[in-house]
Amino acid sequence: MSTDAEAAGPRRPSTRFRGPLVFRRARRDGSTADRNLLDQRGDSDWVHTDPWRVLRIQAEFVEGFGALAEVPRAVTVFGSARTGEEHPEYQAGLAIGAALAEAGYAVITGGGPGAMAAANRGACEAGGYSIGLGIELPFEQGLNEWVDLGINFRYFFVRKTMFVKYSQAFVCLPGGFGTLDELFEALTLVQTRKITRFPIVLFGTRYWGGLVDWIRDSLAASGKISPEDLDLLYVTDDVAEVVRIIRTSGGTGGVDALGTEDEW
């Protein structure tokens, strides 16, 4: 006979907050800082000035760097927030998240629903480390429940820096403007050698095929990019191939030099 707790479904993970950081499950989160700030009442226009915004931007970088500095080797998975749980692309996200975790990688996503939640969930259920880097939007989105370490950012460009700095590879599930934005940001940084080359994998040949054809037949054919720039992209429908590409393609210092989930 099932107990009341079993009938209520799986136990929701405990959640702890430290400033903009969200910690779930039994992950090490360091000491809790007293972040109460006393301020007198008065004119608040100063908080909307550019110098004050610079301090906010600085604070986001400091908070992000501090939270992610000791994250083990990680792979960022992008994808649409609109992907439903019944969709094959959600199942692909689950499988990719689990496969990356089993290969010793932490999984980083944008922390939202849909394909992002699928990758976080796959990593979490496989016993891996699941990270979400959220963004403040006009419409409420929030971090999905499968995130172990979550950070909410105000600024897209700060968040993008965290994706690139702490990832050894990018995997792009089918997605919209946000996914395309991150994809072409990474391609530009690698192409211009602003960052050491790391693999960028497009998962879903049918979805991404038209884009890859356009890059080859329009951009490369007209000389807007070099023919070798096409080699910056990998396209596959095979989850095992995703892991193989990441393992064999390398990254900054080589992914094996950056620790694994077991060492976290």
Task: Explain what you see.
The chain is built from 8 helices and 9 strands. It has helices spanning 4-7, 50-68, 88-102, 115-125, 156-165, 177-191, 205-220, 239-249; strands spanning 15-18, 21-24, 74-78, 106-109, 130-135, 149-153, 170-172, 200-203, 233-236. Strands 1-2-6-5-4-3-7-8-9 form a 9-stranded mixed beta sheet, with helices on both faces. A hairpin with a 2-residue loop joins strand 1 (15-18) and strand 2 (21-24). Helix 3 (88-102) packs parallel to helix 4 (115-125). The longest helix is centred in the first third of the chain and has 19 residues, at 50-68. The radius of gyration is 20 Å and the shape is globular.
Portion in beta strands: 5-15%
Overall shape: globular
Strand line-up of the largest beta sheet: 1-2-6-5-4-3-7-8-9
Q: Sheet bearing the most strands, described?
A: 9 strands, mixed
Helix/strand structural class:
alpha/beta
- The radius of gyration computed from the alpha-carbon positions, rounded to a whole number of angstroms, is 20 Å
Helix content: 25-40%
